C-alpha cells in the first residue's frame, strides 16, 4: 500500500450525539486497509476527565481504533482543548501514539506542522490564560486526584462558562492570529500547517515575505472542520493534499 495519510479533528464525541460516533466508526470502516497513518488532531471527545473515567463510548472508540491499527495503520492522537487529559493508558488501549503541538512530519515534497490550533488564537486572551492554567502539570495532578464526581462537576461548569463566554466574543477574536501563523511558518520552516479547533474548514494559500535567511515562499494552512452534519478529513496521497467532507447520516 502506498503511503496515504488521513487527518481528522474536532469530532467532540459524546453520548448525547450517537450519529457522530456512528459516522466516525463508518469512516474507520471505509478506510480500513486503505490508510498508512491516521492523525487525530485534538478534541476527539467533547470532554475528558481522566483515563480512569471512561464509559461505554470511550471503550467502543478505543476498540475500533485498535482494530483499525491492527489492519496496518499507525494512529497518532494529539491533545485538543477538550481532551488534553488523555494519557498513555488510553492511548495504549487505542494502540495509538500520543503526539503534541508542533509535531512535524515529512513527505517527499513537504514539511508539515501539526497542531490543534488553539495556540494560534492569541487574540482570545481570556482563553489563553485558562489554557495556561489547565495545562500546568501541578494543576492536572491536583485535578486528577479528585473524585470522578468532582471532576465531572468541574467539567460541566467549565463547559457552561465557555459557552457563555464564546457567545459574547467576535469571530475574529476566536480565530487564529495571522501574525502568529506567519511567525510559526518562519520559525519552523514548514511548508504546510495543518490544524483544527476553529471549526472553519479551508485551505489558505499564503506567500511569506522574504527574510534575511530566505526568499519569499508559498505556504499553505489547512484547517479541518468539526463533525456535525458533515464529517471532515484531510488526505495526503501520492504527495497531494486535499480536504474532504462527507454527509453523516442521521
- Tell me the CATH topology: Purple Acid Phosphatase, chain A, domain 2
Derived from helix and strand composition plus strand pairing, the structural class reads alpha/beta
Q: Biggest sheet, open or closed, and with what strands and sense? A: 6 strands, mixed
Strand line-up across the major sheet: 4-3-2-1-10-11
Measured between the Cα atoms of the first and last residue, the distance is: 33 Å
> Mean of residue pLDDT?
95
Counted beta strands? 11
Stretches where pLDDT falls below 50 for ≥5 residues?
A: none
List keywords for this structure.
8 helices; single chain; Purple Acid Phosphatase, chain A, domain 2; alpha/beta; globular; 35% helix; 250 residues; 5-stranded mixed sheet
Give an account of the 3D structure:
With 250 residues, this protein is of the alpha/beta class. It has one domain: Purple Acid Phosphatase, chain A, domain 2. It contains eight helices and eleven strands. A six-stranded mixed β-sheet has the order 4-3-2-1-10-11. A five-stranded mixed β-sheet has the order 5-6-7-9-8, with helices on one face. A hairpin with an 8-residue loop joins strand 8 (202-208) and strand 9 (217-223). Helix 1 (18-31) runs parallel beside helix 2 (56-70). It is globular, with a radius of gyration of 18 Å. The mean pLDDT is 95.
Amino acid at each position: 500500500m502506498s503511503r496515504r495519510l488521513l487527518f481528522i479533528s474536532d469530532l467532540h464525541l459524546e453520548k448525547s450525539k450517537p450519529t457522530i460516533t456512528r459516522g466516525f466508526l463508518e469512516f474507520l470502516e471505509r478506510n480500513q486497509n486503505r490508510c498508512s497513518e491516521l492523525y487525530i488532531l485534538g478534541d476527539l471527545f467533547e470532554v475528558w476527565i481522566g483515563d480512569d473515567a471512561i464509559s461505554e463510548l470511550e471503550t467502543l472508540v478505543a476498540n475500533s481504533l485498535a482494530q483499525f491499527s491492527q489492519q496496518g495503520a499507525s494512529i497518532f492522537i494529539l491533545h485538543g482543548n477538550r481532551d488534553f487529559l488523555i494519557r498513555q493508558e488510553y492511548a495504549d488501549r487505542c494502540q495509538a501514539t500520543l503526539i503534541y503541538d508542533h509535531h512535524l512530519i515529512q513527505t517527499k515534497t513537504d514539511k508539515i506542522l501539526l497542531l490543534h490550533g488553539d495556540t494560534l488564537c492569541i487574540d482570545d486572551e481570556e482563553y489563553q490564560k485558562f489554557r495556561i492554567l489547565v495545562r500546568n502539570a501541578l494543576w492536572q495532578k491536583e485535578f486528577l486526584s479528585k473524585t470522578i464526581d468532582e471532576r465531572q462537576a468541574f467539567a460541566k461548569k467549565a463547559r457552561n462558562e465557555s459557552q457563555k463566554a464564546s457567545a459574547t466574543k467576535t469571530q475574529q477574536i476566536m480565530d487564529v492570529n495571522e501574525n502568529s501563523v506567519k511567525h510559526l511558518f518562519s520559525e519552523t520552516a514548514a511548508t504546510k500547517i495543518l490544524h483544527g479547533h476553529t471549526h472553519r474548514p479551508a485551505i489558505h494559500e499564503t506567500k511569506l515575505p522574504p527574510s534575511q535567511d530566505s526568499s519569499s515562499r508559498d505556504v499553505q494552512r489547512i484547517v479541518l472542520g468539526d463533525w456535525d452534519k458533515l464529517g471532515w478529513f484531510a488526505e495526503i496521497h501520492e504527495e497531494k493534499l486535499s480536504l474532504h467532507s462527507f454527509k453523516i447520516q442521521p
